TrEMBL record:
The keyword Nuclease does not apply. GO terms for molecular function: xylitol oxidase activity. This is Xylitol oxidase. It comes from the Bacteria. Signal peptide: none annotated. Its EC number is 1.1.3.41. InterPro entries: ALO_C, FAD-bd_PCMH, FAD-bd_PCMH-like_sf, FAD-bd_PCMH_sub1, FAD-bd_PCMH_sub2, FAD_lactone_oxidase-like, Oxid_FAD_bind_N, Vanillyl_alc_oxidase_C-sub2. It is an enzyme of class 1 (oxidoreductase). The keyword Oxidoreductase applies. Residues 9-171 form the FAD-binding PCMH-type domain. Keywords: Oxidoreductase. It comes from Aeromicrobium panaciterrae.
Amino acid sequence: MTRNWAGNIAYDALMLLKPSSVEELQEIVSMTPRIRPLGSRHSFNRIADTDAVQVTVEKLPEVFEIDGSTVTVGAGVRYGEMVGRLHDAGWALHNLASLPHISIAGAVATGTHGSGDGNGSLATAVAGLQMVTAGGELLEIRRGDPDFDGMVVSLGLLGVVTHVTLDIEPTYEVSQHVFENLSWSAIHEHFDEITSSAYSVSLFTDWGDGASTVWLKSRNEALPELYDAVPATANVHPLPGLSGEFTTLQLGQPGPWWDRLPHFRLEFTPSNGEELQTEYLVPRTHALEAIDAVRALAAQVQPLLLVSEIRTIAADNLWLSPSHDVDCVALHFTWRQDIPGVTAFLPTLDDALAPFAARPHWGKLFETTPDRLMAAYPKLDQFRELAEQFDPTGMFANDLTKKWLGQS
């Protein structure tokens, strides 16, 4: 029985296939009536599940090809497996997520992101994709091709991605500083100044009356005085009481981009997986209202919560990206693995954030209505038509994706 990383889901798939070549994958897809691609299993819902066959591309031959200002890699590769090699060649990605342990294709397909006022999601770095579509055909698409913007954050509904081409830039160093005890009043009065104070900024909170912790990841920015917050004097973990040895180095010590932009070090498993996660992205114009709405639920949130993170993401053109067409603030919840309690609370959280055009992260736990999804994602209808064009029999769909897209 295959489970997701958190262990809260046992997949219903009858088998998991691991082809060792693109040709073998094409044959599998052409002969399988229902199939879902499986990445690094870091999704907390059933987006990757099926009652038939799952397939992973992690065993396909290794690819690492730099061409000008792009790199092409295998879709099943985890970010942490390629970033050091990219750095050694003199190149870098624009950003990384909190964990370097996630697969490239899975992160891209669900709109996963890092942080930074000027930084788009990880999917915005995609310059091209190769995928096996329904019937086993091999398709290559590049930025600028028709419907490209609809095919990047695809929820695995258009085919099985085999290779991803990413934009790269010259390598750079990052310094990481942590500030503690930032008050809510400072956040309210100086939110824009705080989130723009470094290349990547994260705020950690429990939504109570206590202070927040701020992580600043800087490229060349001068270290600010952060209002009423004070600099940490040792490496800290996002969760109070846990050792900072598992986190990327702080205290302003410069290091390569790939070893500072994530929160957690590649060589450590950041936790034992006994957690659940939910995330909503709201337009930046509604950020403080949405924060206040969650704070009003603190008495219900705190018994379920391990920690929350607040980040910013720049707008993009990708149809199903949670930051499609608008700069966003992400409100992330890492829950205790109290499945009944979290499940019961999710509709309340959705009700609280719906007035602010909140968009749920596709790979996290959430409970909303088709009407709210349609209102939050204006290109959802257009994407559904694209999915039906690529996959008229619904071989890549499952019950969850059909619910999201309003399919029968």
